[in-house]
């Protein structure tokens, strides 16, 4: 359950972001995306109920492993490719691909979560949003961006999975932005050359030449040599064997939360109710 205090949403000027998230989540239904089951509101909070994905964050598994071998990274990448292809077919740009937003279900398959930055696109958008290490150059340069930013982020993610850290890293965001705009990437010797080739074609500064954003769209990514062993119909049916199967402390996978960290709960009793004028801002939620 995602609970948002409406007073905080107003204060942080996130009304449109929250509405976008809810509208997009109502529209989508995909095996590799966390699905929203219900939403509502009262006089103080917004509520969104999601399916429970019990395996935990990919981020945790990656940090524990240090890095993934090429086969493990390939498994997660192929499921993400199909999720992005689906979103883009609906003119939705995701804009927040990173290991923290990728969950494993009880069998070990991928689920993308957190659509707070997602947006339905008519043409291009200019909002600066996302995680610094994963931002495409056109976002940093405020040139206007489209679905190509998700393919850039996929390149960053694949690199991070097989190397163990992002390709563009610095102690402060501006240092990260400079490295992204330079386009220079350092490679470890152990990296699978075919995976390296895919990453280089995704991390192209010119988005018109970026794999996934050309005439054939996602098909160009799916046809890359790194994925040549795959039957994509088998992938979408979740018939590939996951490389990591979550373990559970309790007998039931359905309600075991042991794969997630504990966080302090908000004191909801202290959340203020909205007045009638403020409530009008959320009348279509």
Automatic annotation (TrEMBL):
Record's protein name: Protein kinase domain-containing protein
Keyword Ribosomal protein: no
Keyword match Kinase: yes
Any one of the GO CC terms: cAMP-dependent protein kinase complex
Keywords: ATP-binding, Kinase, Nucleotide-binding, Serine/threonine-protein kinase, Transferase
An annotated Gene Ontology molecular function: ATP binding
Organism: Anopheles minimus
Pfam families, per database record: Pkinase
Domain AGC-kinase C-terminal: 228-285
UniProt xrefs under InterPro entries: AGC-kinase_C (IPR000961), Kinase-like_dom_sf (IPR011009), Prot_kinase_dom (IPR000719), Ser/Thr_kinase_AS (IPR008271)
Protein kinase domain segment(s): 1-227
GO biological process: imaginal disc-derived wing morphogenesis
Matches recorded under PROSITE patterns: AGC_KINASE_CTER (PS51285), PROTEIN_KINASE_DOM (PS50011), PROTEIN_KINASE_ST (PS00108)
């Amino acid at each position: 359950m995602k609970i948002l205090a409406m007073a905080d949403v107003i204060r942080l000027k996130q009304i449109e972001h929250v509405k976008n998230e809810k509208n997009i989540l109502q529209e989508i239904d995909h095996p590799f995306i966390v699905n929203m089951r219900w939403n509502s509101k009262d006089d103080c909070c917004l509520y969104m109920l999601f399916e429970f994905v019990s395996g935990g964050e990919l981020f945790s598994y990656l940090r524990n492993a240090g890095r993934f071998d090429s086969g493990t990274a390939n498994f997660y990448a192929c499921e993400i490719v199909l999720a992005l292809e689906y979103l883009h077919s609906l003119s939705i740009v995701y804009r927040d691909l990173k290991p923290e937003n990728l969950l494993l279900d009880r069998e070990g398959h991928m689920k993308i979560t957190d659509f707070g930055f997602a947006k339905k696109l008519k043409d291009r958008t200019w909002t600066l949003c996302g995680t610094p290490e994963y931002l495409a150059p056109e976002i940093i340069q405020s040139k206007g961006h489209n679905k190509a930013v998700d393919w850039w982020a996929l390149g960053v993610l694949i690199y991070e999975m097989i190397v163990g850290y992002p390709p563009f890293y610095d102690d402060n965001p501006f240092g990260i932005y400079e490295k992204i705009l330079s386009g220079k990437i350092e490679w470890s010797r152990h990296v699978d050359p075919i995976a390296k080739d895919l990453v280089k074609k995704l991390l192209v500064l010119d988005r018109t030449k970026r794999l996934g954003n050309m005439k054939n769209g996602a098909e160009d990514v799916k046809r890359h040599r790194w994925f040549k062993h795959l039957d994509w119909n088998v992938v979408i049916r979740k018939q590939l064997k996951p490389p990591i199967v979550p373990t559970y402390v309790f007998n039931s996978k359905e309600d075991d939360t042991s794969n997630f960290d504990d966080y302090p709960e908000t004191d909801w009793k202290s959340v203020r109710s909205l007045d009638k004028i403020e409530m009008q801002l959320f009348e279509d939620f």
